[in-house]
Amino acid sequence: MSIASPAPPDVAPVSPARTSRWRADLLVTGIALVLAVWVTSGLWIDPNGRAIKVNSSDQALFEWLLSYGARAITHGENPFFTHLIGFPDGANLAVNTSITVYAVLFAPLTFLVGAPATFLVILTLNLVATAYAWFWLLSRHLVRSPLAAATGALFIAFAPSMVSHANAHLNWTAGWLVPIVVWRVLRLRDGRWLRDGALLGVLVAIAFSIAAEGLFFIALACLVFLGVWSLSKATRAEARAALPAMLRGLGVTAVVGFALLAYPIWMHFLGPQRFHGTGFDARVHSEDIAGYFAFPQRSLAGVLGLDTSLAPNETEENSFFGLPLVLLAIGAFWYLWRVATPGRRATLRALGVTALVFTVLSWGPAVKIFKNYTDFPLPYALLNPLPVFNAALPQRLALVVTPIVGLLLALLVDARPRGRAWVAAFAVALVPILPVNLLTVAREPIPTFITSGNWTSVVPPGGVLATVPFTLDTVPDGQRWQAYAWTHGQGEFSLASGFYLGPGGPDGRGRIGPVPRYTDGMLYEVAQTGVIPPIGPAEQAQARADVAYWRLDALVLADQIHGSKWPVQHDALLSATQQLFGPGERIDDVWVWRVKGS
């Protein structure tokens, strides 16, 4: 039985009239738009002046990536490597989440309204597009009822994991990629392997540029699902018949995808400033077993005080379905299995095994439950050292489970089970996880020193500037300044540091930002603690050596500094910088130290 047509063979799918179909499309899209704007409403109040509270650093990074991508187009620069951050070594953007396709497509909007507003537009559209893409796939290929398709699609698009990653992750909220890739993979068996393989190759290249880790998960999920489905007795013959076309299509996909991605793949694995494996601990970044039964923070249950802190941070609540929804999903699987034909059972078996595999893998290398770490090993321990796996976070494998739960809900609604108990079960399971809007905070304004263009009197064209403290994920202002200067046609300056992943982490893995030297390391500690260490001639000499290494033209300390995790100790920073480099020069709303040649 065809995977894309799960309806029992004795019931012919009913195709609604074209007008009714598009009305349903518009209705679901409208609902999704309302929900997406509601979730992101805190930013819509003032896109330039507000930031996502729990992840303002990633927001600043994605805004910078959007502005850099726009600049790369207009200046003919390499979109996968730059010396504008991490100077003088530079940053390999191919091993970072460079969202190149978004940066190119939305470049006109970035120049028109600025990177912060463009970031917000993409974030909102990601949620809407995810809902519509899943509704389209479900309503056209998987279920008969528009209500069933809408139930599954809206759940997937606004599930706890998606709302969690809406905390500034433009890559993971691009959930619309999943149904499109899955659809094109299934189309490979139709016999038009050359055309369909080429289309899938283009789509793979797009997905790689937006969410490479997500593309890896999609490929793994398809492999597990199709493998289990093909081994089922009821579908074995169909799988054998489709295999030649699938293999030829995948061959074309590989050729087209490699042709489009040859350079970024080379940069990713062999280019300068590359690294292999992130510096994040797989044990920490694994899904807590209890997290599957917990309620998410940005949900109705969460704001009523039923949330937990089982995730490493609020952007990584990758399961958090709540106990009622877990029970409903199990109940849906049981009911659908009971009424299923052998072909339908093959599909359900494949969905169930895929969900189980990714659930267990998301638990990471060892059992963690209620934040208690154990030494009890799990299968991921065998995968963690492998290439690609060592650059992924195991907890995010739980993201594969969300669409499967959504599919089960859609199939259950489509099966029209009798009795009010199912309606009550849906209410009890879904109402507590209804999304609420993301928390936002006021973001410190970009200094007049930058917005007025007066920085050009201090830093020559192509010169190097360092913020105090040096720009990193916890103090990301420098890259916001760069983004503003580029999109407003002021010119460019390089940063001696920056928020990006680069080499220099433990065991040859990556780390955030460049390996610190004395000056930036000391100023970072002062910014966080307010404690100034002894500074004498030796420390001043080391600071001068660091300045020479970075080829700095100026250090700049703004009056207002955004700390994404902790308040920045401004007065201590001013005192420490004065002790290192002498009295600063007051320009507009910043302190400046002209250190060129010092």
TrEMBL record:
Pfam families given in the database record = DUF6311
Question: Does the UniProt entry include the keyword Membrane?
Answer: yes
Under the heading InterPro entries, the entry gives:
DUF6311
Q: Where are the transmembrane segments?
A: 26-45, 93-113, 119-138, 145-163, 193-210, 246-266, 319-337, 349-370, 397-415, 422-442
Q: Which domain of life is it from?
A: Bacteria
Entry annotated with the keyword Ligase: no
The alphabetized UniProt keywords are:
Membrane, Transmembrane, Transmembrane helix
- DUF6311 domain location is 78-429
- What is the designated name of this protein? DUF6311 domain-containing protein
